[in-house]
């Protein structure tokens, strides 16, 4: 019974993570550019910086 509760909890956590990932705007869109502008530049990944330069500046 304990194992079933643990599996249920893990599944619920997985669904929550998957649903949160769907909330981010698509890379390169105006909404994504605006979201990234608000994020501290020190928290940007290298890929975000590259995509921002390619999609939002040029």
From TrEMBL:
<dbReference type="Pfam" id="PF11216">
    <property type="entry name" value="DUF3012"/>
</dbReference>
<dbReference type="InterPro" id="IPR021379">
    <property type="entry name" value="DUF3012"/>
</dbReference>
<protein>
    <submittedName>
        <fullName>DUF3012 domain-containing protein</fullName>
    </submittedName>
</protein>
